[in-house]
């Protein structure tokens, strides 16, 4: 049983209950109302308005161009479709350069309908995470590969490959837990390191490209649906072919109206 006792009002409670029952927490991204409503009706535990929308929704090369106004808008439309799931929203790049800026922007996401807010980074962002949790913002951490830093890092690289990096990730995860985060996303982390982090924490870990030994898994909805055929990470299974079906439907319609 987790050592942390959450208040009844915590939005993370259902995730903790799943973890305590030994069930895997399910999570997907959503950026629009119908997708959010369908995922919620399918009983997904956690829906994230991820800033990955910059890529799979808006066609940008990476997530660094996503703005606060865009995140607020997408959070509002997704919130309309969510009745049961935990709804998280990302603080985009450059929206949390100081603790006060982080708080102001996190409040905008909460007012738009988010139940919790995620930002990227571990130990280096702890002051901001503490500031937000002290002000009552339920926080989700995100460590490992940080897409908002892709340009500085020169690509999407696996994290935790060296002992030093593995130790740094574990410290970051522990710092986030101590700072009051209710869950942590582990992105592109060596599976053995993700497992060690998961067993060392009382809060749930949600993995993406981090192996199976996390408390939950998250995927980008377009990858799951086969809706973004130009790129899909190798760990993401497509369970549908929305791209293929869209082209087929368009061609059938073109033919019908001739
Ligand atoms: O932006 C996003 O979609 C994310 C998930 C991949 C975890 O942060």
Using brief descriptors, characterize the structure shown.
258 residues, single chain, binds 3-methyl-2-oxobutanoic acid, globular, alpha/beta, 11 helices, TIM Barrel
Structure description:
It is a single chain. The protein is an alpha/beta fold. It has a single domain (13-219), classed as TIM Barrel, CATH 3.20.20. The chain contains 11 helices and 8 strands. An 8-stranded parallel beta barrel has the order 1-2-3-4-5-6-7-8, surrounded by 7 helices. Strand 6 (183-187), helix 9 and strand 7 (205-208) form a beta-alpha-beta unit. Helix 5 (99-111) packs across helix 6 (126-134) and helix 8 (163-178) packs parallel to helix 9 (191-200). It is globular, with a radius of gyration of 18 Å. The N and C termini lie far apart (64 Å). It binds 3-methyl-2-oxobutanoic acid. Residues 29, 48, 50-52, 90, 185, 187, 208, 218, 220 line the site of 3-methyl-2-oxobutanoic acid (KIV).
